[in-house]
Amino acid sequence: MAASESVNPAELLREQIEGASPDVLRAMVKTFAQALMSAEADAICGADYGQRSETRVNSRNGYRVREWDTRAGTIDLAVPKLRTGSYFPDWLLTHRRRAEQALVSVVATSYLLGVSTRRVEKLVEQLGVKQLSKSQVSEMAAHLDAQVEAFRNRPLDSGCYAFVWMDALTMKVREAGRTVNVHALVAVGVNADGQREVLGLDVASDEDGAGWLAFLRSLTARGLTGVQLVISDAHRGLVGAIGAALPGAAWQRCRTHYLRNLLTKVPKSAQPWIATLVRTIFDQPDADAVRAQFNRVAGTIEAKFPAAAEHLADARDDLLAFTDFPREIWRQIWSNNPQERLNKEIRRRTDVVGIFPNRAAIIRLVGAVLAEQTDEWTEGRRYMGLEILTKARLIIDQHDTDQADPTPIAA
Fold first, then answer.
1. Which pLDDT tens digit goes with each residue over 224-240?
2. What CA–CA distance (Å, rounded) separates 379 from 370?
3. What torsion do the CA atoms of 109, 113, 115, 116 make, to the nearest 10 degrees?
4. What are all long-range contacts of 336-340, with beta carbons under 8 Å and residues at least 24 apart?
5. pTM for the predicted model, two decimal places
6. 47-51, 206-210, 242-246, 338-342: range with highest mean pLDDT
7. Strand, helix or coil at 252?
8. For labeling, which of 60, 246, 254, 376 is most exposed (least CB within 10 Å)?
9. Helices (H) and strands (E) in the chain, counts
């Protein structure tokens, strides 16, 4: 490959900019890199290119072409060769890793946003970067691990977390040559400042009591305290785990999920009527009215569907736990709906992947999504006002006092 005897980067860049080339950035980067490599090779040789000098200790021997992936696209570089020894610009090109850090960040971010590895490969091809394989995309995405682990293991030191929502999402993963279902356990809480934040994430083989208990104990070990109410669906073993790991915390069964369960106890033709009746329980202005309406609804249903009425009566305490708290926050604590939007965002990202290669990949992707969501919540307005949180604590303290010291009955 022929080379110019004199390289003037400033002149070349001026011509490129004035010519308004569509690839001006790529050309600028290439010009700078070529000039720097040429200068370094001349320093090794002891004389400039083509110059006769007594101080010369080596000489050029042509060039070898190397592709360099940059944020401006793939650039064909002419790396100088020497007659004696070898020259390689370590400061510019890294052995076996041709993509610079900026490209790594772009690829990892695309992966985080739910773009599949195949689509990322096509995306970077459109940006001008060639020969980026699926394995390289996955390797680049792995650099998120350190950030996710720091997020998952951070201390929960933002004061008391009065309200905590928990849910489990089923994921598919390859283990021991088989595709199996695992469960991503997620906890979201309201801290002492009234802000929501993701408290923790773990992957368990099952939603049994052991999995939930280990998850809750990991949260308390990191500083989770002051929990007054846990809101969730009726996951297996969760209620027992709450009692063991969070003594004093009540459990609110998600009204939305429960209604779906209740409707399976009646004929399809009666489901709209039953759903309307049950919703009237939650439309009442105060706690006493809620309990009175619950009794009326249970009695009405019992006349036609005794099994459904018994199912509803058994769930009474779990469904009405929210009534012990201020009316202003009932809509936020009587169901898991506030977390449903988060679950949809997680699903949007994980559905692109389909089957994960291992559990660490689930932690990486879901953990990054949750860390991103926590940042957005922190920058947004408070989820609950400080006055409401104070009022909730006072109500619970008074409730506990009344239970500990009941008023004696007069003889």
1. 999 999 999 988 789 89
2. 14
3. 80
4. 336/165, 336/167, 336/231, 336/232, 336/233, 336/254, 336/256, 336/257, 337/254, 337/256, 338/165, 338/188, 338/196, 339/165, 339/167, 339/186, 339/188
5. 0.69
6. 242-246
7. strand
8. 376
9. 17, 8
